């Protein structure tokens, strides 16, 4: 923290030296009408750095004459924080306020010690919203969707077919909205006065569903299917779900209740789990962990068309999901998990400490089976309860 502020102060001093003039710039005897000649960004490496607007929070240098008596500086209806250290006769260094204006005048207003004022044309650029994530893609009508991004200034939120959502909670980087009746699968759009963005993810993503535990099922002798609301700790996400549950899970335990195997020979037939490049695809599913998951990784892999899990098949590439790596993992309800197919990079005999891996998925067209299983090293024997729904592979 100390080095950050030291660097910032140094940068501002250097910028001040670049844009200010002689040592008499702050001479109190300087008189005359205040004038703004131009405004520059403060990076001396920039070429054409004269500006007529800047983004919120940006550091600018105001260059003119007779500016030393500036006491207040307003951008639209937002007051900037001024430091006397960075005010001279000919230069003011200031950060554009980071608060969105309520009244937009596209003016910079100077207030001087004698009460006089000066207006100068200057626009504050407010970025369009960005949308980077969603807590859970599957939420019923009337439920709350949590969206993450930035620049959520007086937003409006729309589901597919322009169905508007009720806003429940708003911050600059997080939105909570109530899912409207009739909301359909598809992208979510956020619109503000400064632009709009459409999500890359789909709400209730129904693309390439491999397992949904309602009509698309796995082998019955593995993790049992649980009906919605049948478990007191897990309410349903989207109908029934698979439940990985056992009173204790130790190292390298191959336990039926803690494995989920889908064999395409008994399912939808010789249909690849996905098509396309692994660089462009992500495995997604909804997950609910009501008690702390402390150790034993979940392995995930795809197998060839056969009555077999495929873990021992030549070239099988395994993903190791360890959300507890930084501490016990527990969700607050259902969340959507995303694992890029490029993370399927471990061979079954790779070291437990290997973070690089020796495999990758070579040919998706040959892979039809899906396996999730808790299997690996452990520090003890801990209870496990992990609910999973809607396994799918979709575009990034």
From TrEMBL:
SUPFAM superfamilies (UniProt xref): E set domains (SSF81296)
Source domain of life: Bacteria
Protein name: Surface glycan-binding protein B xyloglucan binding domain-containing protein
Molecular function, one GO term: polysaccharide binding
Classification via PROSITE patterns: PROKAR_LIPOPROTEIN
Domain Surface glycan-binding protein B xyloglucan binding: 203-395
């Amino acid at each position: 923290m100390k080095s950050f502020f030291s660097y910032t102060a140094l940068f501002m001093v250097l910028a001040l030296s670049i844009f200010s003039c002689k040592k008499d710039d702050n001479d109190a005897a300087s008189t005359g009408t205040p004038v703004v000649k131009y405004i520059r960004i403060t990076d001396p490496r920039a070429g054409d750095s004269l500006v007529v607007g800047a983004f919120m929070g940006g550091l600018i240098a105001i260059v003119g004459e007779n500016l030393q008596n500036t006491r207040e500086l307003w951008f639209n209806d937002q007051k900037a924080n001024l430091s006397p250290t960075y005010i001279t006769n000919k230069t003011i260094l200031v950060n554009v306020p980071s608060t969105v204006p309520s009244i937009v005048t596209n003016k910079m207003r100077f207030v001087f010690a004698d009460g006089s004022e000066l207006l100068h044309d200057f626009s504050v650029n407010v970025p369009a919203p960005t949308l980077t994530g969603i807590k859970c893609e599957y939420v019923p009508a009337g439920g709350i969707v949590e969206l993450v991004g930035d620049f959520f200034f007086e937003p409006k939120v729309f589901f597919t077919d322009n169905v508007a959502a009720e806003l429940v909670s708003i911050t600059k980087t997080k939105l909570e909205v109530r899912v409207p009746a009739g909301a359909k699968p598809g992208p979510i759009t956020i619109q503000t006065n400064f632009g709009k963005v459409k999500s890359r993810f789909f709400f209730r993503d129904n693309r390439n569903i491999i397992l949904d535990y309602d009509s698309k099922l796995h082998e019955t002798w593995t993790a049992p299917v649980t009906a919605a609301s049948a478990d007191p700790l897990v309410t349903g996400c989207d109908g029934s779900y698979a439940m990985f549950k056992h009173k204790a899970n130790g190292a390298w335990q191959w336990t039926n209740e803690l494995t989920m195997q889908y064999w395409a020979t008994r399912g939808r037939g010789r249909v690849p789990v996905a098509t396309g490049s692994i660089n462009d695809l992500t495995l997604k599913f909804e997950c609910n962990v009501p008690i702390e998951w402390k150790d034993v990784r979940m392995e995930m892999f795809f197998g060839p068309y056969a009555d077999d899990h495929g873990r021992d098949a030549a070239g099988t590439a395994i993903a190791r999901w360890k959300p507890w790596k930084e501490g016990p993992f527990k969700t607050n309800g259902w969340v959507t998990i995303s694992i890029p197919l490029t993370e399927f990079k471990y061979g079954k005999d790779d070291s437990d400490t290997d973070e690089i891996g020796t495999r990758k998925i070579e040919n998706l067209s040959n892979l039809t089976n899906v396996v999730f299983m808790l299997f690996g090293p452990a520090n003890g024997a801990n209870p496990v309860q992990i609910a999973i729904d809607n396994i799918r592979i979709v575009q990034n």
